[in-house]
């Protein structure tokens, strides 16, 4: 059985347009591929370790084919590896990630965001006065 790990990074939950768009994709994909199991990871609900200099240095060392250097990097890397979702990720056949779609400003002061249904129209919001 194929598995997808859907990673959501939006703090807005039900109000999230990017999460709504990801759900549209997941619904369509699983309708076409009913054998696929979808596992979800909400980064705002997960118990994640702090990610600082030692964590970033350890990650870059490992991604570069090396090993973390020093006790702080080794500890940071072990914490990252201990997260169940990271241990499950290699067993997934795909990992769609829902990232926040932050509004952009236009020349007339209004803002727009991508539509949650993937339509080409935008949701228009008045600009907040400064």
Notes on the protein architecture:
Helices cover 35% and strands 17% of the residues. It has 130 residues and is α/β, with parallel strands linked by helices. The chain has one domain: Rossmann fold (3-Layer(aba) Sandwich), CATH 3.40.50.360. The strands form 2 sheets. The protein has a 3-stranded parallel sheet, with helices on one face. The longest helix has 16 residues, at 17-32.
Give a topology summary.
Elements: E1 3-8, H1 17-32, E2 37-42, H2 53-63, H3 70-82, H4 84-88, E3 97-98, E4 104-105, E5 111-113, E6 123-125
Parallel strand pairs: 1-2, 1-3
Antiparallel strand pairs: 4-5, 5-6
Helix pairs in contact: 2-3
Q: Which key features would you list for this structure?
A:
single chain, 130 residues, Rossmann fold, 3-stranded antiparallel beta sheet, 4 helices, disordered C terminus
In short:
By secondary structure, the protein is α/β, with parallel strands linked by helices.
Q: In terms of structural class, how would the helical and strand content be classed?
A: alpha/beta
User: What can be said about the biggest beta sheet?
Assistant: 3 strands, parallel
- Secondary-structure element string: EHEHHHEEEE
Mean pLDDT: 75
The whole-angstrom Rg is 19 Å
* CATH architecture heading: 3-Layer(aba) Sandwich
């Amino acid at each position: 059985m194929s598995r997808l790990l859907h990673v959501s990074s939006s703090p807005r939950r039900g109000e999230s347009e990017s999460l709504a768009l990801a759900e549209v994709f997941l619904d369509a994909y699983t309708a076409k591929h009913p054998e696929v199991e979808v596992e979800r990871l909400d980064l705002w609900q997960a118990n994640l370790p702090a990610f600082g200099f030692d964590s970033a240095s350890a990650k870059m060392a490992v991604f570069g084919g090396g090993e973390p250097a020093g006790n702080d990097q080794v500890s940071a890397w072990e914490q990252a590896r201990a997260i169940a979702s990271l241990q499950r990720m290699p067993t997934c056949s795909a990992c769609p990630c829902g990232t926040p779609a932050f509004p952009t400003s236009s020349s007339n002061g209004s803002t727009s965001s991508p539509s949650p249904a993937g339509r080409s129209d935008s949701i228009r919001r008045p600009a907040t006065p400064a």
